Amino acid sequence: MIRVLGIETSCDETAASVVALDGGGAPKILSDIVLSQIEEHAAFGGVVPEIAARAHVEALDGIIVAALADSGVDLADIDAIAATAGPGLVGGLIVGLMTAKAIAAAANKPLIAINHLEGHALTARLTDGLDFPYLLLLVSGGHTQIVAVRGVGDYQRWATTIDDALGEAFDKTAKMLGLPYPGGPNVEKAAATGDAARFAFPRPMKGSAQPDFSFSGLKTAVRQAATAIAPLSDQDVADICASFQAAVADALDDRVSRALNRFRQEFPSELKPALVVAGGVAANRTIKTTLEALCEKAGFAFVAPPLKLCTDNAAMIAWAGIERLRAGISGENSADFVPRSRWPLDSISAPMVGSGRRGAKA
Ligand code: KG4
Ligand code: ZN
Hints:
Layout lengths: L1 E7 L4 E9 L5 E10 L1 H5 L6 H23 L8 E7 L3 H18 L3 E5 H13 L5 E6 L4 E8 L2 E7 L5 H11 L6 H9 L24 H13 L5 H33 L7 E5 L6 H14 L2 E3 L3 H4 L4 H13 L35
Parallel strand pairs: 1-4, 4-5, 6-9, 9-10
Antiparallel strand pairs: 1-2, 2-3, 6-7, 7-8
Helix pairs in contact: 2-3, 4-11, 5-6, 5-7, 6-8, 7-8, 8-9
This protein binds 5'-O-[(R)-(carboxyoxy)(hydroxy)phosphoryl]adenosine (KG4) and zinc ion.
Zinc ion binds next to helix 4.
């Protein structure tokens, strides 16, 4: 039996969870508490890092106490503390990692510093018991990546965004159209009554041999269309949202199908490989349906973990800790580990084309 306390504070969710692995190798989420800061940031139309860091400071202690109480496990019986140490907003990372270090030191437990992206990458093994290798599409407010997940600590980034993350594009589109934050669900809702054929928005990167994503050109096209017909009626907003969503789905279809082909070539012995989707944008029905159809056509299993576990949470961090313990990879197991606002999952991948000196934004 392994039991790990996980802590997540890299963006605007304060989260703690206890996950156990029993002797037979079956995982169980004993508690999973996520406090969203959406209300604190809504007035600003996006996450404000300073506000996020302060909110984590205020909430984290109570959330950890509640996660331990809910799990019915004493801190003394926890095997390790796993905390997100990057990538993310550095203020929040400091709060989470320092708290984890303090608990680990006081309770004399090992500390495992976890890469947030590894948490997303391994979730499908917690929820669906997936075997390696598989392909991950991570589409959230901060990340847009395709990753070949080959083993614990063995990830290859095949594509990333050269500018905005997909969730960011949804949020910015919503803001331009006067829809509330967070933008994704509101864009989807408005799109339901819109005409997706009214605006011919660009399909970024479609047909390009470079495997990556790009969304800032699409965002600009949306702004230009909106400005050209302002003031916008509700129907105009709905039509822009529907046309934007159609462009996104089409672009994803093209990008992901390239990755599925590459997966087939690199792992020819996998008869029914899986594509896992994670991140808040995976909640979008149009996107989900598009990817499901693509997988069906390509002979891939489509795996979408429950939304609660594929948006930011601490169960995935605790689980990544268990995976590392089980694999005997101490990883970043050190009280000296310093939070990293940028921390690529795949350290071998070349820096992004078009990214600045410090790397791509998302
Ligand atoms: O994974 P997540 O909860 O948090 C991080 O970004 O880490 O993802 C949030 C993102 C936001 O940008 C939000 O607008 C987007 O996911 N999102 C959606 C939908 N629901 C959430 N985007 C499109 N359609 C949705 N239904
Ligand atoms: Zn995330």
